[in-house]
């Protein structure tokens, strides 16, 4: 967006409107927001899809709630959760329809959200609200191979990488931000998956997370059968 110069303001609106025009310019400049692209690359140089990326302002900041998604769905098809990984803002409600050919009993014993949906097909149960940040690991009490993940965050910016391994987040003010990435398939140490980046409000900013370890063939963590004995 091109901004008018003070001389243009005087010519178009007269000298008395110059101050108001300059104020409008300053407001427009202050409202500009930056875009941050985060790419996650595996040891072979390939982008990693479905990686959770959360972005927080670095340093002291005014507390705020993460945006919520009003109609988030985790379906069940072919004896699997679809999608396998969701990232949502704290306070988001998630629907768990069962569009599979068999019945499922969804549960979680994760500290961030403990719940279970008794054996069902179709859309029998009301949505579940995830009001506490943290990782929620989902399982099915009938099919042990089923595992799903809901990453609940208080961060103001979040998303998942696309098939090319990149996520683009818009609306960031200029300044420093803390980036954290997570996936049940990433085996790298957690300390290497967090970094700080400075976002420029005037032009796009990019950050690259290079993984060192080979991706896991089996996602972790997984639901534990022993949890049913608590």
Topology:
Blueprint: H1 6-13, H2 18-30, E1 34-41, E2 52-57, E3 72-73, E4 75-77, E5 80-82, E6 85-89, E7 92-95, E8 104-110, E9 113-120, E10 128-130, E11 134-140, E12 147-153, E13 157-160, E14 166-172, E15 175-182, E16 194-199, E17 205-210
Parallel strand pairs: 1-17, 3-7, 6-12
Antiparallel strand pairs: 1-14, 2-13, 2-15, 4-5, 7-10, 8-9, 8-11, 11-12, 15-16
Characterise this structure:
The protein is mainly beta and 230 residues long. The protein has helices at residues 6-13, 18-30; strands at 34-41, 52-57, 72-73, 75-77, 80-82, 85-89, 92-95, 104-110, 113-120, 128-130, 134-140, 147-153, 157-160, 166-172, 175-182, 194-199, 205-210. Helix content is 9%, strand content 41%. The strands form 5 sheets. A 5-stranded mixed β-sheet has the order 6-12-11-8-9, with no helix packed on it. Strands 13-2-15-16 form a 4-stranded antiparallel β-sheet, with no helix packed on it. Residues 18-31 have low confidence and may be disordered.
Salient structural properties:
single chain; 230 residues; mainly beta; five-stranded mixed sheet; four-stranded antiparallel sheet
Quick structural summary:
This protein has 230 residues and is mainly beta. It is built from two helices and 17 strands.
